[in-house]
Design goal:
The protein has about 80 residues and is α+β, with helices and mostly antiparallel strands. The protein has a single domain, classed as 2-Layer Sandwich (YaeB-like fold). Helix content is about 30%, strand content about 30%. The protein has two helices and four strands. A four-stranded mixed beta sheet has the order 1-4-3-2. The longest helix is centred in the middle third of the chain and has 18 residues, at about 20-35.
Length: about 80
């Protein structure tokens, strides 16, 4: 099942904090893998219950699946992404 990818406005700010090569690598992985099989990625627990994560090296992409749409909520380093 193919999913449409949408980004929350705050993701632009998250990506601006990264270097261009890292940001491009993360966006490429999102477009290739999440659009095809987003439901294969692990569910989160605790205060993030219902959300999922995609690992890209030391970075994490937090997203939600809403019917046929994948909404990217946050992108950040693994040590910081689960705070706040």
């Amino acid at each position: 099942m193919a999913y449409n990818i949408t980004y929350k406005k705050s993701v632009e700010k998250d990506l601006s904090r990264l270097g261009k090569p890292e940001a491009r690598r993360i966006l490429d992985k999102i477009e290739k893998e999440l659009s095809a099989r987003a439901d294969n990625y692990p569910l989160l627990k605790g205060m993030f219950v219902g959300l999922r994560k995609l690992r890209v090296g030391d970075y994490r992409v937090i997203f939600a699946i809403l019917e046929q749409e994948v909404v990217i909520l946050r992108i950040g380093h693994r040590r910081d992404i689960y705070k706040n």
